[in-house]
Structure formats: structure tokens, C-alpha cells
Automatic annotation (TrEMBL):
InterPro entries: Hydant_A_N, Oxoprolinase-like
Gene Ontology MF term list: 5-oxoprolinase (ATP-hydrolyzing) activity
Entry protein name: Hydantoinase/oxoprolinase N-terminal domain-containing protein
Signal sequence range: none
GO cellular component: cytosol
GO biological process, one term: glutathione metabolic process
Pfam family, one: Hydant_A_N
All copies of domain Hydantoinase/oxoprolinase N-terminal, residue ranges: 8-154
Length: 161
């Protein structure tokens, strides 16, 4: 009020807060479940295997941000000529092109019935937010998109793909 400003003169406004950072640091906010490809339950816990202090006896592993893990029964395999995967195993399924131009084989479609059962279990625990991280979804998002759709249909309020 003390400084007259014509709104037409404003091109943009930038505002920053620490609300999200504080919520992470204080471990406040929504309870979250992580949905990953079957067999990769500990993927984010293991991380990238970097060990900057290899001989430190008091290494502290950071807490994870999720409370539960659901292993989604699905499998997508990246097809590469330089892969040493047994060729008798690979090649039995139709190869599909991806968004990156790579080729994949879908070895197992999403088991939707099992997924719904697993999501019901975490929903009964009061968890309504899920983060989905399936193998090779960066180039073949179909399975991840389907999992997200099912979660939303079941009433999960926050679905991160």
C-alpha cells in the first residue's frame, strides 16, 4: 500500500520456502510406500555402492524416506547386443521399441491382482502415498503408468512415478 505498484508491470514473482526441506529433515509429512520391481526391494537402501570412507567403523547409513516396500510382480529386460545374458533365455518374447530407441522384452506383465492385494495391505496401515520406481521405466513407462493408474483408482492420494 505504501508503494504503488501496477500489477501489469509484474512479469513474474519468485518465492522460496523451506517447508519441504524442513518436512524431510524432521521426518514429517505423508507416510510413503515404495513400489519397485520384484527382487529389488533394497534398491534405494543399497544405493550406488559408493563407500567414500571404506575403513570407517562408524559409517551411518541415512534413513530411508519410505515406510513400506511393495515388490511389483513385473519384469522388463533391456535388450543389448553387448549383454552377456544367455541368448536362449532372451529372444523368446517380442522385442519392443522404447522412448529412447532401445529395445526391450516384457518378460512379465504387471500382476494386477497381486498388486491390488499388496496395495490394500499398505492402505489398511494408513499409507496413502506411493512412489513407483520400476526397472527400465525411463525408456518403457507402460508398467509404471499402469501401476500409478491402479494406485489412483484405489484411492491413493499421492502417486509419484
Amino acid at each position: 500500500e505504501s508503494f504503488p505498484l501496477n500489477p501489469a508491470d509484474v512479469d513474474w514473482i519468485r518465492m522460496g520456502t523451506t517447508v519441504a526441506t524442513n518436512a524431510l529433515l524432521e521426518r514429517k509429512g505423508e507416510r510413503v510406500a515404495l513400489l519397485v520391481t520384484n527382487g529389488f526391494r533394497d534398491l534405494l537402501y543399497i544405493g550406488n555402492q559408493s563407500r567414500p570412507k571404506l575403513f570407517d567403523l562408524s559409517v551411518r547409513i541415512p534413513d530411508v524416506l519410505y515406510e513400506e516396500v511393495v515388490e511389483v510382480q513385473e519384469r522388463v529386460v533391456l535388450c543389448r547386443d553387448d549383454c552377456k545374458l544367455d541368448n536362449e533365455i532372451r529372444g523368446k518374447n517380442e522385442q519392443k521399441k522404447t522412448t529412447t530407441g532401445d529395445k526391450i522384452e516384457v518378460w512379465k506383465e504387471v500382476d494386477e491382482e497381486q498388486l491390488r492385494r499388496d496395495l490394500n495391505v499398505i492402505k489398511e496401515k494408513g499409507i496413502l502415498s506411493v512412489a513407483v520406481a520400476l526397472l527400465h521405466s525411463y525408456c518403457f513407462p507402460d508398467h509404471e503408468l499402469r501401476v500409478g493408474e491402479i494406485a489412483r483408482d484405489m484411492g491413493f492420494t499421492n502417486v509419484s512415478l
